[in-house]
């Protein structure tokens, strides 16, 4: 007779409108116990909450510090052309890094999404799964072959699907249909390839030995999380559809998880979350009868673990927190990717004049508002990207070893941008045609940390990416800049590339000075609750993402990656979230 209540529920849903509860304060919720509690409605958390609530008899509470992503102020989130502009707004946590020794002691803003969808609602839309070697290395690190590239394929297909750009232009030959799936997250190519794009692609045919063309997922045409003329985030793709069709999922917004609690004083079973809306607000407790899933991201997750007494005991003592589990690697092993911009004046057509013309920009935004068409409806700033390696005989590799995931994984990355993007210490010219190539260190060996500033959940933690603090890292960025200068001397660029805005950066010392003054975060932190094998002492979570030393608690977000990703992290976070959802369902026999 177990089918009966399910059937009744479905009939009821068909007849009326079945809706989840959306709450903006903890006291609005009348129940205090759920099967699962998911902390953070970000990239990973929205996927997990949506997948777990597919089973109608399972109750799920999803708790998010930020607010709605579809209010009156949400255009900055949804319009593809505005990607990046939510930084420093109400949708950003507004973190700042600690002073960076490798960057002349500078601090810098460290954006993270503070809204439904988390960072997938504010990021730059790039969709790149990275090399297969990333996954094979995770499998090796976790000593669990189910994380291998071959074995994670179903989760890619469950997450993503390719869609046309708004203008339905043919993108045949620019991507490989066979490697795309049938999931709710939409990805697409640009609607309007630029002259710069054509030159980059031409280079990969003319100079295919040095700069090979990849049809899909790697260097070549860029794919972005845009569909039906708007950003596709974990919130638009997963969370809203679930909220609008289910009764067993509750979303609590504008509320921060401040601490996790255990069943009893002597037990190591985590089953409670304490929440509050601000430092002085009344605190509430919710209980999970099955599991708690931490998806607060690479900054929020280690902060919550530390506040709950799961971390290096010495550091916990210093902040007056009782140690539950002495777990030395919580908040450690942080890896992020620094980026700099190099600009050239060009003899050709770029977006720079358009982007310097406020009236033209108003016109495209107006057109978008009218019928969701035009330049604003797709990614336009950059549409090609290159992942490159140091030469195999590079002294850097000989001296320091190869930190990338394998022989097909990048050490550095170029994005070809169709306008002038300035570094923090530059002022952009207001006339002329310009291109920018960003140089990113893909495989850093520097290791930073997230530590507590105090025992208050409402104080930002100390975020130290430790950028360019290793000889390999600064050496690789210098080699990357030189490699870019060489690339631009190939005949593809004849008659197009003019003088560099920076003047000639020739010697290693000149390049190093430039890089240390200009580098900022690419906003890809990982590693602060890293996965490790079941038997290994180090690491924070085991192969099934369960936090070591306790029961009832998993981490599902970018914190679990043991190494900086070889592609762009959102695609890899989605894969982790889909696989984790399947693992949790398996544990609890949910179909
Ligand atoms: C500006 C920007 C641009 C980027 N560009 C790209 C790109 O183009 N391509 C790409 O692949 N990646 C990009 N990234 C990185 C990528 O978006 C992230 O790596 C990924 O989204 C992280 O997913 P996550 O689930 O780990 O964390 P998030 O998506 O950040 O989710 C964490 C969620 O937890 C919530 N939270 C945190 N603490 C608490 C708490 N105590 N209580 C309740 N809720 C809490 C947060 O508000 C947030 O919603 C970018 C990131 C940023 C910020
Ligand atoms: C981030 O800063 C902006 C600008 O000062 C502010 O409006 C916003 O509320 C801040 N975000 C948070 C989460 O406090
Ligand atoms: C693109 O195709 C869709 C589906 O066939 C159609 O609804 C839409 O009007 C087309 N858009 C344009 C700009 O051609
Ligand atoms: C690129 O190559 C194609 C054919 O090989 C040619 O038609 C096109 O003009 C070239 N474009 C540029 C910008 O060089
Ligand atoms: C915002 O999203 C929620 C959940 O999907 C929905 O109930 C609400 O109507 C939406 N609000 C607007 C203004 O679209
Ligand atoms: C803190 O939260 C409480 C209840 O949620 C609210 O009434 C109060 O205004 C908030 N205080 C501040 C300073 O935001
Ligand atoms: C959308 O609006 C613009 C004018 O703002 C118009 O030129 C264009 O034809 C319209 N497109 C569609 C598909 O309606
Ligand atoms: C600029 O491009 C035009 C047309 O492609 C070409 O004739 C001219 O020589 C170029 N100028 C320079 C300075 O390269
Ligand atoms: C930069 O180098 C080029 C080519 O070597 C040279 O022609 C030019 O004068 C140099 N510019 C500066 C500002 O040194």
TrEMBL record:
The keyword Signal applies. It comes from Mycena sanguinolenta. Its cofactor is FAD. InterPro entries: FAD/NAD-bd_sf, GMC_OxRdtase, GMC_OxRdtase_N, GMC_OxRtase_C. GO terms for molecular function: flavin adenine dinucleotide binding; oxidoreductase activity, acting on CH-OH group of donors. Residues 1-20 form the signal peptide. This is Aryl-alcohol oxidase-like protein. FAD binds at residues 115, 123-126, 257, 569-570. Belongs to the GMC oxidoreductase family. Keywords: FAD, Flavoprotein, Signal. It holds the Pfam family GMC_oxred_C. Residues 297-311 form the Glucose-methanol-choline oxidoreductase N-terminal domain. The keyword Glycoprotein does not apply. SUPFAM superfamilies: FAD-linked reductases, C-terminal domain, FAD/NAD(P)-binding domain.
